[in-house]
Amino acid sequence: MSQVGLARLQFGVTTIYHFLFVPITIGMAFMLAILETLYWRNPTDRGRQTINFFGRLFLINFAVGVVTGILQEFQFGMNWSNYSRFVGDVFGAPLAVEALAAFFLESTFLGIWIFGWDRVSPRIHALSMWLVAIGTSLSAFWILTANAFMQEPVGYKIVHGHAEMTNFFALLGNPQLWVEFPHTELAALATGAFVVIGVSAYFLARNRHVEWFRLPFQLGLIVASITSVLVILVGHDQAQHLIVAQPMKMAASEALWHTSALHASWSVVSFFNPATHHTWWSLSIPYLLSILAYNRLSGRVLGISALQHLYVHRYGPGNYVPPVFVTFWAFRFMILIGFLMAILAVWGLILVHKGRVLERPRYLRLMVWATGLPILGNIMGWVMTEVGRQPWIVFGLQKTVDGVSPTVPIGDIWITLIGFALLYGVVALIEVRLLLKFIRLGPGAAEPVPPPTTEFLSVGESL
């Protein structure tokens, strides 16, 4: 593999691994905040043990997510120094705000939440988890602000061969950010809800700790139903924005080689040869692509060939077609998973409403396995977003091949790639074993909890 290919592979592997934990952290923080609020309104030993149980799972995931996230920053300097020099004055600002404000916020109040039991009042303890949840979402917001600039550069000017920020508020008002962040945030909330549902379903299917997990299960279904449906709706808005901002990505996600007819159909599945542009077989729904793109039955969508000619005229000679096969199927799997999540969550709500969910052990066992659906869907969405942007590392400004560090030997990249893979494999094994251990123990294995009391220290004394 070339130096660029290896650097991309290393960053892709480490980022995907890190992104396994981020949505779970965001979603579970909000689920814990809701459970904690309910406990504050009605404190019981059972409620506290349930919170402690899910809190352990959250903390294990949070710790691994933080550790794997730190590595991303080093890769900007190690393998992507040309990119960092070119756009660091813009890209670095949102990341700095994320570290100094959002991450410190969630870390500080997470410490209060962990050590604050019986030291602060239930109201302050619940508030600390809400601030953790807000902090995790703010972290995502600032990171996506940086990523949105890579997708749709705004608020900059080129000075002496590198980008300099001219308007920080233009970054915050980036149209790409305001379709990307809601979609990612809602997907993260759905992920946390499905984790809570899956763990609760594990016990409900075995008729263990039913009274402990009935409430988290029902709460998870409510959150998952709302967020899964909203993810689909917001994703529709994001797809429409791609038609304007990155039409090549949209064309690649549809394997649309030639500009569509006035009434464009959408391919449910398609088997094609990316090299020859030949499609062997395709199952299409008439008019649907025009509806998705323009909210009406008519509307042409530019094809890959036409956009290639346009980009050559605009940016100069080169190949501007992203990996179509990966982009196309990642988009399809993301959509399929999104609809499966919505169907399963709404189905569960119907069973709960009828009071028959405990009579459906197959559904409960299915929801245990469905825990992996949003995690896989998040990865597919990330792959589609980043791979579909190629060959650009910053769309329209810098190509990926120009952002790589020029003097890092291929052997060094191989060594770090293999080393990171081995290290992450060990970390993954440890995390999975810890999670399974605490899940199997259940909430009954928690330390003895004193009965709730109404006498608490003042906030000042507690802190």
From TrEMBL:
GO molecular function: electron transfer activity; heme binding; metal ion binding; oxidoreductase activity, acting on diphenols and related substances as donors, oxygen as acceptor
Keywords: Cell membrane, Electron transport, Heme, Iron, Membrane, Metal-binding, Transmembrane, Transmembrane helix, Transport
UniProt keyword Transport present: yes
Broad class of the protein's primary localization: membrane
InterPro entries: Cyt-d_ubiquinol_oxidase_su_1 (IPR002585)
Localization terms from the record: Cell membrane
Record-linked PANTHER family: CYTOCHROME BD UBIQUINOL OXIDASE SUBUNIT 1, CYTOCHROME D UBIQUINOL OXIDASE
Protein name, UniProt field: Cytochrome ubiquinol oxidase subunit I
